[in-house]
Write a structure and sequence with these properties.
The protein is of the alpha+beta class. The chain has one domain. The protein has 7 helices and 12 strands. The strands form 2 sheets. Strands 2-1-12-11-9-8-7-6 form an 8-stranded antiparallel sheet. The chain has a 4-stranded antiparallel sheet with strand order 3-4-5-10. α3 runs antiparallel to α7 and α6 packs antiparallel against α7. The two termini are 25 Å apart. The N terminus is likely disordered.
Amino acid sequence: MTLISRGWLGFAGSLVLGAGALAPAPVLAQTAGKADQWIHVRVENKDDSGETVRVNVPIEMAVKVLPAIHHENLQGGKVRICKGDLNDVDLHTLLDAVRSAKDGEYVTVQGKQEDVRVAKNGGYLYIHVTEKKPGEKAAKATANKDSKVEVKVPMKVVDALFSAGKDELDIVAALHVLSSSGDMELVSVKDDENTVRVWIDSKNVSD
């Protein structure tokens, strides 16, 4: 799985699992009775165990719990971005450029190891990454054997993420905006080990 795949999966998993683990039972029961948006994570393992993990957390609960989490780069509902991971890239300048630009496909990379596509359309930011299997026959690899990451995020959620200031992502602010964005699939990861899906809707159970 690529670094990009691990990053998105780790973010989604930490957000949902952290909120669910730290929330007291009375809060869970109280929140579950409301018709609010829920964030869902489903992980299907492709090994012999065939294990499937489903996590469902009300966004309202996550918004309340995240500020209480202080673990490594996640502090008080904000994620600190290590400068070493950015390779001297100013994310705020890039975001402003994307926000003010017309809809279109901004980045298309077709390489021997991976294909990358970054685009904006209809108020959404799209990121698609396909990691190809190494070897001489990589070009003939089937779609099922390639590792794929697909991300779809409303631009207003991206704006909220970067509202914290330089080198930080405001997860709580993004969740507030996300809760009013309607049902949608956010992240899809498929590789030879796992299939991961992250989405939001008004159901208190996952598919």
